[in-house]
Structures are given as C-alpha cells and as structure tokens.
Predict the structure.
Amino acid sequence: MGDVLAGIHATWEFDTDSVLIRFERGMRTPKLLQSLRERRVPHAALSAVTLNPGKRGTVVLHAVPRPGADPLLEAAAGQLKDGCDPYRLVLPAERGTLAEYYADELRALLGPDAARPADRFMVAAPEAPLSFKAYDGRAGFDGDRISFRWSWTGASSAKWKAGDQTFSVRELSGVEWRSPEAFDGYLRLVPRTGAGDPVLAGGVDAPGAPYGPAGVHGLRAAVRPAQADQDPAAVVFGLGYGPVHESLPFAAAVLESVRRRHPQPVAAPPAWPAGGGAIRRTSPSGSGTWGNCTRPAWSPMTSTGRRRRNCSRSCSGPRGLVRLRPVRLCPRTPVRPGSA
C-alpha cells in the first residue's frame, strides 16, 4: 500500500507484503519499544486485525500475530502489559475512521493460514550481542553462546560452587522468562532432552524436572533445582535488575537462535533393566559417581563428600548405578565415595 499511519509512540508503514513498525524514542515511550526500535511484520505472520476503543479518547489498532510467529511474544508468554505490546497502535479518537480503513485493508491481506499456529518464526528477534545485569550476575549472548558471570554480592552459594557458566545454543531446547515485574522473576535456560528418556516424565518446564542425558551442566540425569536462585542455568531478577526492556529481548534472541539451529541427535539413555533398573549418572560436584547400589538406598553426596545408605552393606551392583526415585535417608552407616 505504501501508506504511513502515525500513532502515539509508533508509526506503521504499510508495504505490499509486510508492515514496518517504527517506535519513537522519548520519555513517554515504554523502554521496551524504544529498545526494539523497529520491527518488520509480514502479512503471513498475522492472524487477525482488530480496532477497539482505547482510554481517554483514543482508539487502538491491534495486529494480532499468529502463535509461534514472533520470538519476542513466545518468550513473553502473555506477560507483557498492553502498553508494551509492539502490535498495538494507539491513535486519537478523531482518526478512528482512518484506522478502520487500514484495519480493513490489512484483513484483506491475511494469508490462508492465518488461523493456524506458525511452524517457524516469521518476525526477526533482536540481534546479538546482547547483555544485561541480573541480581545475581551478568548474562551475555554473542549469538552462539550464553554466559552467566556470577556477582559476589547476589549469587547463591550453589552458583558460586558451580562457577561461571557458558552454554551453547545447541545444548538448549528453549528459554523460560518470568517478568521482573513479578515477585520472583528470572531467566532460565531449558536443556535439550531425549524424547525416549524415561527420566523425563513430567516435562522439563516444571521446576524440579530432570536435565537430559547431555544437559547444560554436563551432568547425566541431574535434577533441576526448583528455585531459580539455586540453578546455575538461570539468573534471577530484582528491583532494578533484569528489566523487561533488557531481559526480554535477550530471551527472544536466545529462543530464536535455538529454533534456527538444527539440534544434534541426543544420545539414547541406557536401557532399563528388568525389575526397576537404574541408569548411570555423575555427582554434582564432579568428584565421582553417586553410588554402587541398584537398590533405592543411595542419597546424593553431601557437602563433605560423604553418603548415607539405608540398605545392607552386602548389597552389590555395577559401580555408578543408582535408582532414580525418591529415597528415605537413614542416619546410620556413612560411606566414603568410591567404597563398595
């Protein structure tokens, strides 16, 4: 169409196959929109166009993207406020007739798959390199690797013990972003997992779900901490740390890079033996395996490198095997790592 529609905080330029949205830079413009600068949205990425009355004598022209078409909205997962929605154009009420005209024109250009979720991202994510300061460290992304550098004032002891972290996007399946405007905001990386891995029942997106056979920590079948401040694959937000206009574009860029790359095949996990079975895994400290016993008797290593067991000492099995189900700890018979 080649026309331009100027609204509050943004200007839409209508091309033959897309809409170019340019955001203004000013004190009243939300910082997220300022950081995005501009976005080109293909007509094929839209599912609907609506026009509704706004606040204080305004109308709102809203181009609704298809699910899965925009990495920014996929990372946000419905947590954005209306004022930060990059697909809303607010205009004075006296321009309602003009806005209705452009809404009708856009609806006529929607593709035949507008009602279906997109099978790929159609809107570009913010470009790397990107970085932001979280409460417990600094996160950086260069387009291929994500780095977490812990702060000596905010990081938990678990993160200090794990050390600074670096992750390749090839090791990841996604990213979880919880808005810093929530009580416990965070950004957490989600590792790739094997589809046939029996350890993965319950999904990797739930707190306490296990990492995959080649997870981001390099451990096998390690369980994710339920709290983000204890997870070396996550950074937490706080007052003034990880603001939306810095952390959300970061999450969108990581998510887009993960989806763009073809993941490497995940190694198949060991087969479950008859009678319950066990799989091999290494200890979180990297100092050895978690047990010699195939009965549900071994607990994780303690900070002193000792283990407790609640089965008889005569129990034997291949070294490094352990049952992956909750165990009831017994205070008797402490055993040193590597002992049979």
About this structure: Residues 195-221, 263-340 have pLDDT under 50 and may be disordered. The chain has three domains: 4-108, 130-260, 272-340. Residues 272-340 form one domain. The two ends are 77 Å apart (CA to CA).
